[in-house]
Amino acid sequence: MTVLPVAGNVLEALLGLVIISDFCLLGAERSRLCIRLVALQGVILGFMPVFAAGDGMTPWLAVAVAVFFVVKGGMLPLLLWHTYKKLHPRAPGASYLGNTASVLLGLAAFAFSLWLNSRLGIAANPLFSHIFPTAFATIFSGLLLITSRRMALAQIFGYLVMENGIYLLGAPMAQESAVWLEFSILMDILVAAFVMGIALTHINRAFDSTDVECFASLRD
Amino acid sequence: MSIASLLLPALLLLPLCAAMLSWFVPADQLRRAFLLVTATVELLLAAACWFVEPASLGGELLCLDAMGRLVLSLTCVLFFAASLYAVSYLKAEDPGARTDFHQGLHFSNAPEATFTGCMLLFLAASVLAASTRHMGLLWVGIETTTVVSAPLISFHRHRRSLEATWKYLLICSVGIGFALIGNLLLDIAMQSEARHVVDMSVSSLSQGSGRVHPAWFKAAFVFLLIGYGAKMGIAPMHTWLPDAHSEAPSLVSALLSGALLNCAFLGIFRAQEVALSVGFAEFTSTLLLAFGFSSMLVAALFIVNLGDFKRMLAYSSVEHMGILLIALGVGIAAGRGGLLHMAGHSLVKAALFLLAGNILARYHTKSSHDVSGMAQSLPMTSALWLTGIIAITGTPPFVVFISEFFVLQGLLNGGLLLPAAYLTLLGVIFVGMITPTLHMCRGGMPHDRTAKGGENLLFVLPSACLLVSALALGLYLPEWLRESLDRAAALAFHP
After folding, report:
1. DSSP label at B238?
2. CB hemisphere CA count around B279 (13 angstroms)
3. How far is A168 from A181, CA to CA, in rounded Å?
4. What is the dihedral of CA A133, A139, A144, A150, to 10 degrees?
5. Hey, which residues does B156 pair with through a beta bridge?
6. Which residues pair with B134 in a beta bridge?
7. How far is A199 from chain B (nearest CA, A)?
8. Contact B187/B137 with Cβ under 8 angstroms?
């Protein structure tokens, strides 16, 4: 599978946007901004099957693009927004590490993934080597958000960013015969985010906060 | 259409449709009956799979091999026992606001319809995981078990259960995310210039010998092991397990420990099946042994003087999941024992968690220091609790003793160091569990907890049946079951 030059440039630009949104998420303190950035990532990722298909776009893959676009770019951010509106206090809070250090760690992860990409014997699919550094850095950014933020809502952001990275990693493997599987995975993530949102609402009601520092009663 | 071709769709669709319908059943009593009927029919369908070979659908998308049948059967047996228990349990639960005996704060339960619906969805997801040999669909099944079991853990919406639910959701979702990365890396490892599209069914992946990219394959296995290992409660990714198992309603803890952990183990089993076929068993066995022993060690360190009998059972699950990984790492010498261990652990641990629910309901505490005189206050529960603890710690003649002995036999083939460590850890855990158990059963009842009242037979019957099964399997292993265990072991246990 080859990536056409024009498509290649667009792909590079979109991947650039994804990585910038990762850094912005790592530095962001306001939930509204985080939700918008997650939505932006979702919209960009919705287009990935187009690049994976190359010149072999089929009606099924077109449907897949539409579904990914709606779910990742629309439904998931709306779900986050809905949860966010019910919470007090609403800010995701600063990172334990500090925002600057978080962004610097994100940059370091991106640099490391570029190095790793050059070191690994990249697989048969050339599109994979285009995508790998961004995907790896996005997964890392998601994990960093989960582990370094005090507010549980920010951990949901982190989970979704990590899933975006995994989705990106799998984008080169997108194929018509496995669209059903991608839909199933997408639905699972949607339901997981939904259940997390509900759990968070109950947590907020029981603890009057979503600060994970409050979660200290279960210890050995 | 033959019965064989209908079995797997029926097994999947029955709990799925029942879950949807249960939300529309208006009366609680009717819904409980509905749950029990569904569990009974599902159990009968699972039993039918031992007599009629179910036809596969979509290649290996829905395909029940010997291992899948074992996991499926265990899931259905435990679900039936849990449903039987649930009927009385849900009836006894106060639907209004009440006080948490631990922290003194008010809370109210989640709606019963949600609880029943999620239980049935959990069954459907577990059946899906057991009856597929497609790595992608297996992932979907296991991830779905996480999502639908979270509301079960937070049925009592007090602070501790919500905290446990959050940890469970987050750690398992991230873990399962790692398993998804493992699947993607597996796909990459199997790709070649001529073959960009990889069929993710286990048989197809197993035929990739000679074409596999070693570095990618090893990375894939590590991610799968960490991902499914987190869900299985393998140390050091086990931290969610004691919290979730101790804070969930006891029948949910029974399902989590007896059925959910097996599904996660199935993920690692399938990965090992591929590794064995493509010639990486040596690499994977070392990893499995390392994670297995680390889990046993962590369980041994925490279980001694723990002071919370539900957490004690949870750490015991960490130990037994470690033993399962050790068996898989040892190979075919421990093969039958390993799978027998999975069955034994499921039966006994589910029984113990159900009994823990009875103790909690009577004593209003999870502290093993504050529980005493059970022999007088809860005579049936006390006798079964003591029997169960004896069984789970690997005492003869129960099945867990037989299976642990098989694993020891397998370990002895590789020198004396590992068997010595294995026996030492088993010994420490035995002492750690039996000491508080004796204290709980003997002595007089605390004066403030002398409330009388007989034991409801439905609260002890499921546990009694499960423990009798564990005893029967220890005394006699039928030929058909032995054959099935050997067939399952041959899939992933290396020679």
Report:
1. -
2. 8
3. 15
4. 150
5. B109
6. B201
7. 7
8. no
Contact B167, B243 (CB under 8 A): yes
- Chain B (237-256) residues lying within 8 Å, Cβ to Cβ, of chain A: 242-243, 246-247
d(CA B73, CA B81): 12
Distance separating alpha carbons of residues B37 and B14, to the nearest angstrom: 11
Residue B173 neighbours by CB distance under 10 Å: 27
* Eight-state DSSP code of residue A209: S
Measured between alpha carbons, how far is A176 from A167 in angstroms, rounded to an integer? 16
Separation CA B354–CA B86 (nearest Å)? 10
The token pair that represents A88 in the structure block: 């007090």
Tokens describing residue B195: 């073959």
In degrees and rounded to multiples of 5, residue A151 shows phi and psi of: -90, 135
Residue B489 to residue B468: CA distance in whole angstroms: 25
Structure tokens at B286: 């070392």
CB contact under 8 A, A218 and B164: yes
Please give the Cα distance from A169 to A166 (Å, whole number).
Answer: 5
Dmax over Cα atoms in chain A, in whole Å? 58
Contact B422, B408 (CB under 8 A): yes
Q: Give me the residue from B107, B160, B177 closest to A166, CB to CB.
A: B177
Q: List, as own/partner pairs, every contact residues A11-14 make where C-beta atoms lie below 8 angstroms and the sequence separation is at least 24, other chains included.
A: A11/A51, A11/A130, A12/A130, A14/A44, A14/A47
Dist CA B399 CA A82 (whole Å) = 51
Distance in angstroms (rounded) separating the CA atoms of residues A87 and A92 = 11
Give the tens place of pLDDT for each residue, B273-300: 999 999 999 999 999 999 999 999 999 9
Tell which residue, B171, B147, B152, B172, has the closest CA to residue B162.
Answer: B152
CB contact under 8 A, A195 and B150: yes
What tokens were used for B390? 């004896």
pLDDT in tens, chain A (220 residues): 445 555 668 888 999 999 999 999 999 888 889 999 999 999 998 888 777 766 667 787 788 888 888 998 899 999 999 998 888 766 656 678 888 899 999 999 999 999 988 887 666 677 788 889 999 999 999 999 999 988 889 999 999 999 999 999 888 877 666 777 788 888 888 889 999 999 999 998 888 888 888 887 777 7
CB contacts, 8 Å: B147 with chain A: 188, 191-192, 195
Nearest to B227 by CA among B157, B171, B186: B171
CB count, 10 Å around CB of B370? 14
User: How many Cα neighbours within 13 Å face the side chain of B56?
Assistant: 12
Domain boundaries, chain A: 5-214
The answer for B96, left when phi > 0, alpha when psi is -120 to 50, beta otherwise, is: beta
Q: Tally A–B CB contacts below 8 A.
A: 121
Q: Would you give the end-to-end CA distance of chain B in angstroms?
A: 40
The vertex-B17 CA angle with B12 and B21, nearest 5°, equals 155
- CA dist A23 and B277 (Å) reads 42
Angle B111-B117-B119 (CA atoms, 0-180°, nearest 5)? 105
AA letter at B405: F
Which ipTM did the prediction report? 0.91
Minimal C-alpha gap between A217 and chain B (Å): 7
Classify residue B107 by its DSSP letter.
E
Residue extents of the structural domains in chain B: 280-495
